[in-house]
Amino acid sequence: xxxxxxxxxxxxxxxxxxxxxxxxxxxxxxxxxxxxxxxxxxxxxxxxxxxxxxxxxxxxxxxxxxxxxxxxxxxxxxxxxxxxxxxxxxxxxxxxxxxxxxxxxxxxxxxxxxxxxxxxxxxxxxxxxxxxxxxxxxxxxxxxxxxxxxxxxxxxxxxxxxxxxxxxxx
Length: 170
Prior knowledge:
Layout: H1 8-14, E1 25-26, E2 29-30, E3 33-45, E4 48-50, E5 57-60, H2 61-67, E6 74-79, E7 85-93, E8 98-101, E9 113-123, H3 124-129, E10 133-137, E11 143-148
Parallel strand pairs: 3-10, 4-8, 5-7
Antiparallel strand pairs: 1-2, 3-9, 5-8, 6-7, 6-9, 10-11
């Protein structure tokens, strides 16, 4: 049977000889972490799509802060208009801007509605009490409301932001 080669520092800290894998706990703490939805900017309007840029999505700095995004953080872009989904990273930008850059610009156009979502790892106790932050914006990407996520069937009709649904992709 092959001997597992854990780094020397790990073996010293964990008491593991390297012949066996460390158990599910390390210093009395559970190693399990859950990947959780942390927050989103809901139904923002794409203001630009720049194919010639290196990559990323540029987002209004105030919206980034309200939703908990930090520069260079991984972000999921779910295009409501086109049905595409992709992952890139965030860069801060001027007021009202949501500009999709690089190859991702092939899947997004100015005027498209997108959801910008972030995920992260929480331990089990944090995960059970976590409430994702949702930032709602108007058609000019100005924040109109920020609150914890509410499941669709539980959402009062008056709380749902009034936004047009695009019918054609022109």
